Amino acid sequence: MKTTLSIIELKKQLLEAARAAVREKIVLQRKAMEDAQKEANSHKGAMASRYDTFKEEAQALRNGHARQVQELAEVAALLDQIKPEVCDQIRAGAVVVTSQARYFVSTGLLDDPIVLAGQEYHCISPGAPILRLVRGKPPGATIQTPAGPARLEEIY
Predict the structure, then answer these.
(1) Domain that holds residue 29
(2) What is the pTM of this model?
(3) Tens of pLDDT along 101-144?
(4) 23: closest CA among 67, 81, 72, 92?
(5) Same domain, residue pair 55 and 101
(6) Which long-range contacts (CB under 8 A, 24 or more apart) does 12-16 make?
(7) Which of 32, 53, 76, 151 lies 20 to 30 A from 70 at CA?
(8) How far apart are CA 26 and CA 47, in angstroms?
(9) Is residue 88 situated within a structural domain?
């Protein structure tokens, strides 16, 4: 059984790891955006195809990276709003434990799980399909997932 303090400490660590992963993604996207801008600046506008020039294609790539940076900045702001507190219902900041996996309700944009004390926590958005399956179910309930039946163990 976890204590309130240990749950809060775990959530602080999960939040910090998620924030760090988002910051890393922002740095990578900004670098890719800068590289695309340099590529665009290096072209004079020579035709690459009937419809686009090399420069226009590089600018479009740069704009795509800029959109991703903006989206990640919004995710970072949402993570900053999550309070590391005990939850008894599914919402941003909750940890949902099933017999198959542990989920940290935060953002679905992280590729790899966060590993703390040898346990993997998959970051998922509040609208993730697995959460629709467990919403309103009590601990101990069995849910049917694409990977097979799973038991809802706890929400905190």
Answers:
(1) 4-81
(2) 0.84
(3) 999 999 998 989 999 999 999 999 999 999 999 999 999 999 99
(4) 72
(5) no
(6) 12/84, 13/116, 14/84, 14/95, 14/104, 14/106, 14/114, 14/116, 14/121, 15/79, 15/82, 15/84, 15/93, 15/106
(7) 53
(8) 32
(9) no
